[in-house]
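Input record (one chain):
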Amino acid sequence: MENLNVQSLTPDRWDDFEALFGPRGACYGCWCTHFRVPTSQRKTMDGDAKKRFMQERIAAGPPPGLLGYIGERPVAWVQVGPRSELPQWNSQKTVSRPLDLADAEDSSVWAVSCFFMNAQDRGRGYSHRMLSEAVNFARASGARLLEGCPIERTKQSKSVGLYVGSLRIFEAAGFSEIAKRKDGRPLMRLVL
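The corresponding structure, as predicted from the sequence alone:
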């Protein structure tokens, strides 16, 4: 694997985030709002509104995730932060819902909810490094628990469906399954 330099997504890195996500905002114009904005609100937003939402969130701080670079080129993204910032991740209708409802508001319970790499940069092991750095970032930010809800398998190893991460990378990082509400989508936890 090439030397991946990982940095917090601060406002001065907006242009890099925008370049990585491309003109359509990655993953069908999501701009990484899927878990941050309630479905009813998100469905009324066009791509520009989602982009503005995320730009404002980044500007407000603290960093909502990490960018990975090869040289000066942004190649990878991981969204990591308190569960309380992710209403859709906490929804009782989702497989990622917390074991204890109080965890949804506990600022020390964090989630690794999204990964993104352009198609040409997938399959190079960057997600392992991004998850490792997300763990370090969460720990340094005072998180006591870090959770993920990865996918066990996809039809293609470079599938866009891996935006939640693969089971394999979470296992390699030391996460343990704490619930399985749907086949192929375990809720996993790392005690920090």
